[in-house]
């Protein structure tokens, strides 16, 4: 009985805090979203700046803060803080969703035109677009799974303005711009190139975004194909296809390209990477860094293509140490398949 009453109180608090934020009508400024602020990222020289947002709760109710941390409620139940990443010609707004998903707003800093990647929680997308006075014009869907494409139709209904919905699979909700390998389009002045990466699903697309003049690092949005330290399960594909995706197409991008993946899986993936290469110091360093980030619920994205080549076993299938762990075969595709099969049942 007591437990039931406590759950009722907790749910009520969560509902009121969330509703207050989304109405944007509170007379108490301490309940509203604080403004964006820029903070340096000391752990990654040259990375640029990250901007973070926080939902403040009244200081007169410290127990509510503990309650939110205990139930992982926070703002909209977010698993991570909201952050901005500044790149050449663009900014990427990291929007946590569901239990461990990430949505992303890609913003052309010059025109303020924006596109959203995998908007599974459209309310947060719309709130952010309106607050930042952006022009949302496009939806970039990596694949058809509900936790990535499940918000498309609701977003179109709530937004009530024309949106181009891109994707490579007819199973994607609200799809009206089907794309394939090497198709291109723009977000304001930003250039987007589509990379077909079937395996996790047959119609999976990664989106490579660069400044109009090609300068700067650029970013790639990899959905469930490439994760930090890992890759997606082979639900609808083969080791050959994942090898092509990771070791041919994505590996060909500039090493400085920022990788924005679909889930916060870094610690789990890096644990497996350490299991595969226990003597790889880069992996252990990244684990410690990621533990520090997650202790304060900060996202571990993005990494870079170059970093993934240094620690991700699925992008290191040519390495002797990785091949030895996978049974000694020198064929990288065979190694890819054996690693994925082991990872499917791996317990950290």
UniProtKB/TrEMBL annotation:
Gene, per the UniProt record: Dsec\GM22320
Name of this protein: hydroxyacylglutathione hydrolase
A biological-process GO annotation: RNA 3'-end processing
Catalytically driven reaction(s): an S-(2-hydroxyacyl)glutathione + H2O = a 2-hydroxy carboxylate + glutathione + H(+)
Pathway noted in the entry: Secondary metabolite metabolism; methylglyoxal degradation; (R)-lactate from methylglyoxal: step 2/2
GO molecular-function term, one example from the UniProt record: metal ion binding
Gene3D superfamilies recorded: Ribonuclease Z/Hydroxyacylglutathione hydrolase-like (3.60.15.10)
Ranges for domain Metallo-beta-lactamase: 100-263
Record InterPro entries: Clx_II_MBL, HAGH_C, Hydroxyacylglutathione_Hdrlase, Metallo-B-lactamas, RibonucZ/Hydroxyglut_hydro
Keyword vocabulary terms for this entry: Hydrolase, Metal-binding, Zinc
Cofactors required: Zn(2+)
SUPFAM superfamilies: Metallo-hydrolase/oxidoreductase
Assigned protein family: Belongs to the metallo-beta-lactamase superfamily. Glyoxalase II family.
E.C. no: 3.1.2.6
């Amino acid at each position: 009985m007591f437990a039931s009453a406590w759950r009722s109180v907790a749910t009520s608090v969560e509902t009121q805090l969330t509703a207050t934020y989304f109405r944007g009508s509170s007379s108490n400024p301490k309940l509203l979203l604080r403004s964006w602020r820029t903070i340096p990222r000391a752990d990654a020289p040259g990375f640029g700046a990250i901007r973070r947002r926080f939902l403040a709760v009244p200081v007169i109710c410290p127990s509510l803060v503990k309650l939110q941390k205990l139930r992982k409620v926070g703002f909209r139940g977010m698993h991570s803080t909201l952050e901005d990443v500044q790149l050449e010609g663009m900014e990427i707004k990291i929007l946590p969703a569901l239990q461990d998903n990430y949505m992303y707003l890609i913003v052309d800093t010059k025109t303020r035109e924006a596109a959203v990647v995998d908007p599974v929680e459209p309310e947060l997308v719309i709130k952010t677009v309106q607050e930042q006075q952006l022009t949302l014009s496009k939806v970039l869907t990596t694949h058809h799974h509900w936790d990535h494409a499940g918000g498309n139709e609701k977003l179109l209904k709530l937004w009530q303005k024309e949106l181009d919905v891109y994707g490579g699979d007819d199973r994607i909700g609200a799809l009206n711009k089907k794309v394939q390998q090497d198709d291109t389009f723009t977000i304001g002045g930003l250039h987007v190139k589509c990379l077909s990466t079937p395996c996790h699903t047959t119609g999976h697309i990664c989106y490579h975004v660069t400044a109009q003049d090609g300068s700067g690092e650029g970013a790639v949005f990899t959905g469930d194909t490439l994760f930090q330290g890992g890759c997606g399960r082979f639900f609808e594909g083969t080791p050959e296809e994942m090898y092509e995706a990771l070791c041919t197409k994505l590996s060909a991008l500039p090493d400085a390209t920022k990788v924005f993946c679909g889930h916060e899986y870094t610690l789990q993936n890096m644990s497996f990477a350490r299991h595969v290469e226990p003597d790889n110091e880069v992996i252990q360093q990244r684990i410690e860094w990621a533990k520090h980030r997650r202790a304060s619920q900060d996202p571990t994205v993005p990494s870079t293509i170059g970093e993934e080549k240094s620690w991700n076993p699925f992008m290191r299938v040519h390495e002797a140490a990785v091949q030895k762990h996978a049974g000694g075969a020198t064929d990288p595709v065979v190694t890819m398949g054996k690693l994925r099969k082991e990872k499917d049942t791996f317990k950290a």
